[in-house]
Structures are given as C-alpha cells and as structure tokens.
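quick q for whoever's on today - can somebody do inverse folding on this one?? i tried earlier but teh output was garbage lol. tokens:
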C-alpha cells in the first residue's frame, strides 16, 4: 500500500534547501540534503513513515546518524511510488536500533550538533533511491560509518527530500512548516507543500522569519 511521508518534526523550519547555487558559493561545497530546525525547544525527530531501521551509528563527519528505509512512497509529480533510503544526521541521541520496524511518527531521536564542523543544532536529511548502498553519500570524502559515494553515480538516485514530505495534523502530531528568508532556500521550496488527507493547512511564510545565522556547511 502506498504511503505519504510526513515532516520529521512538528514545528519545522527549513534553513537550507537541496542543491542551491547560493549554498555552493557560500560554503564551497554542494548540499545533497536539506537542513531543518524546530521553531520550538522540542528537538525530537520522528519517522517519516512506516519503515525499517537499516543502521545507526556515529559518523566522523555527519555525526550520529539513523538510516531508514521506506517502501512505496508517494512522490510529488510522479505516478509511480518509490522505495527510498533516508539518512538523518547530526543527532544528539538515537532512540531506535538496527532492523527495528517502526511506525510513522515514532521517535527516532533528538537532533543536535554532532559533526566534525562547529555547527549549530539542526537535522541534515538526505533521501535517495539507492537501496543497495544505504550508507553511501556524496556529502563526505572520507569517514568511518557512512561511505563516500561517487558523485556522478549517486546523483541519479538522489533527489530533493521536499518532493516526498507532507504536513500532518493528527492525534500524535500537529505540524507546521516555514522557511528562513535566506538565499539558501530554493524557489521550489517556497511553494506550499502538500498536507495529509483531512489536515488543516497551517503553513507560515519566510517573511515572518529573519534569516538564521549560519557560518558552517552541512
């Protein structure tokens, strides 16, 4: 059965989009995911859908990371459902174990600032369709948990995570979404994102938020 994925936190602020020229020019590196923070002090992150934990561990570059697999995911603008790998990085703590089957909305951990860089707390989320290489990412050059991916090969599997994320308002989670007014946000991500069925729309826009200070990549 097809499933729609939800945002990984309840009060989501997008601080950096996937693959923007502004990010590349500012940090001198490409951004192969999206960066998210909470508008509140609640830093919990949740499972995007019903899925399985492929692996958990501490990476030397991206910090504590959870790798999830989700099947039959609905993708914006596509009639074909896809199976995806999701990597949640920079976590302060992890609440799941490898091979564990989890339901949508289940707590995965707390986002933080674990990284080789002096970053501010945030969640770095990558999504691709490369089920054979779930630990592979082009974000890193060399590390100990995640593995370097050959950029040209991996790019055919990677895509903007915003293409599969939806807002949910229900018994467990009532979500909101906005983004910062920075050049790191792509025009596509400034559009309204879809809501789950029977979910009242609660989307707030970047004009209400000042840019968040950021001096480090990832």
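ok took a stab at it. sequence:
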């Amino acid at each position: 059965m097809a499933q729609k994925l939800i945002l990984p936190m309840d009060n989501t602020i997008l601080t950096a989009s996937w693959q923007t020229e502004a990010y590349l020019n500012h940090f001198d590196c490409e951004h192969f995911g999206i960066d998210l923070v909470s508008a509140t002090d609640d830093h919990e992150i949740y499972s995007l859908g019903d899925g399985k934990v492929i692996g958990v561990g501490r990476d030397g570059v991206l910090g504590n990371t959870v790798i999830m697999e989700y099947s039959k995911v609905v993708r914006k603008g596509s009639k074909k459902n896809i199976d995806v790998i999701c990597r949640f990085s920079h976590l302060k703590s992890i609440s799941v174990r490898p091979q564990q089957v989890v339901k949508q909305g289940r707590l995965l951990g707390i986002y933080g600032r674990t990284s080789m860089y002096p970053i501010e707390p945030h969640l770095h989320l990558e999504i691709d369709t490369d089920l054979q290489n779930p630990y592979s990412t082009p974000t890193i050059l060399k590390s100990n948990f995640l593995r370097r991916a050959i950029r040209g090969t991996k790019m055919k599997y990677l895509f903007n995570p915003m293409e599969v994320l939806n807002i949910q308002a229900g018994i467990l989670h009532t979500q909101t979404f906005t983004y910062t007014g920075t050049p790191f946000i792509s025009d596509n991500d400034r559009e309204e994102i879809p809501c789950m069925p029977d979910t009242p729309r609660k989307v707030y826009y970047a004009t209400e938020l000042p840019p968040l200070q950021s001096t480090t990549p990832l």
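fwiw The chain has one domain: 5-208. also The two ends are 34 Å apart (CA to CA). so keep that in mind when u check it
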